[in-house]
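re: the backbone from monday

yeah here it is again, tokenized this time
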């Protein structure tokens, strides 16, 4: 039973858009009270990802022209607080971030079935409840509302999904943001078996998820990755590797790719369209190498290409993800585990992209500590009993 006498909790807030100095670990945050159709979750683990960093530094503002890493530590002077969120609506500070959340329901609102208390859940990152399930509208957990960087978090009951798995909280917390983003792109682009799919940024959290999820559908996966990470991505299931910085047209040839799953954008972006076959599809959910690209519109219409900008997620995306987890069709390797008060170091390490990757995430004694985890690489093929 949840101890209602405890009124305060530990958590990390951002005080505004900017650098790492905006992150503040506090011990005096009020425990949220669930509304009628909400649940209160004791957070077991959260994760560090580009969504949280981009929100902190104000990268979504149209005033920012550079890539994420340029402002990851210090923020951007050109960011405008009025349009620096996913939704383009100013955020309310202080804000508890944490787009990923795995935990246990400990209290419920008046209209929620009491039987849900005790359920282990994952929170859908892109929330639809708060916008009345209108098409192409959503709130991001940890952006338009408080998220998982705290001991407790509240979420809509309909979007706190029960999950039955032998994976640890830390491992499960790696899925919501990265995997739903990747699955959404693959779903929107309708990737089919035997199609040739090029994935940029394939060693990152979303990219490595996309490799696994595209392979799950039987696609032929070509991954763009640095030389030092090529073997890791091959182990995820990539069929072919293109070394980042090499000319992909030289190794793959023009008009030879059915689908591009892009998380990078940046200077090499025009070559992606040249790689696509006639009638090809391009899906994008990130621009870590820079948001401004050069488009020759003739390439777009003369090749009958289709573009998908992927933020909003249909309900089936997260529902499918839960099914993949429970059937052990996707399994993570957690790079490193941090205590919540070390979130600044976790984000520094994430931005450096040099985390050592290891499969074991915890010992029995620390299962119930709050964790910030940085995920880059996932492992396929482990039976459920070997996952932890």
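seq for it, each position gets an aa:
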């Amino acid at each position: 039973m949840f101890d209602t006498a405890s009124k305060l909790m530990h958590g990390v807030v951002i005080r505004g858009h900017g650098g790492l100095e905006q992150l503040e670990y506090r011990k005096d945050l009020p425990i949220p009270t669930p509304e009628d159709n909400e649940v209160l979750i004791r957070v077991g683990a959260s994760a560090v990802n580009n969504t949280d960093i981009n929100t902190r530094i104000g990268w979504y503002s149209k005033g920012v022209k550079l890539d994420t890493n340029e402002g990851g530590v210090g923020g951007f002077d050109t960011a405008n607080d009025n349009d620096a969120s996913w939704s383009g609506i100013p955020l309310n500070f202080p804000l508890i971030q944490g787009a990923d959340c795995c935990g246990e329901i400990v209290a419920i609102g008046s209209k929620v079935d009491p039987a849900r208390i005790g359920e282990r859940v994952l929170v859908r990152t892109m929330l639809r409840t708060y916008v009345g399930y209108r098409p192409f509208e959503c709130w991001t957990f940890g952006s338009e509302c408080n998220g998982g960087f705290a001991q407790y978090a509240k979420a809509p009951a309909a979007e706190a999904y029960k999950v039955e798995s032998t994976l640890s909280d830390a491992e499960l917390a790696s899925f919501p943001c990265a995997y739903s983003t990747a699955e959404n792109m693959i779903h929107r682009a309708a990737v089919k078996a035997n199609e040739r799919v090029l994935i940029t940024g394939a060693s990152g959290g979303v990219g490595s998820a996309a490799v696994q999820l595209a392979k799950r559908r039987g696609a032929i996966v070509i991954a763009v990755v640095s030389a030092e990470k090529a073997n890791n991505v091959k182990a995820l299931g990539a069929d072919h590797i293109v070394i980042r910085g090499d000319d992909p047209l030289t190794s793959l040839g023009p008009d030879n790719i059915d689908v591009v799953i892009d998380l990078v954008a940046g200077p090499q972006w025009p070559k992606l369209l040249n790689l696509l076959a006639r009638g090809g599809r391009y899906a994008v959910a990130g621009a870590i190498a820079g948001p401004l690209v050069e488009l020759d519109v003739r390439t777009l219409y003369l090749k009958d290409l289709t573009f998908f900008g992927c933020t909003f997620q249909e309900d089936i995306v997260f529902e499918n993800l839960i099914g993949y987890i429970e059937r052990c069709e996707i399994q993570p390797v957690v790079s490193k585990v941090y205590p919540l008060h070390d979130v600044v170091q976790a984000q520094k390490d994430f931005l450096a992209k040099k985390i050592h990757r290891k499969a074991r995430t915890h010992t029995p004694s620390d299962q119930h500590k709050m964790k910030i985890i940085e995920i880059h690489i996932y492992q396929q093929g482990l039976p459920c009993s070997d996952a932890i």
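Residues 356-388 have pLDDT under 50 and may be disordered. Residues 176-188 form the longest helix (13 residues).
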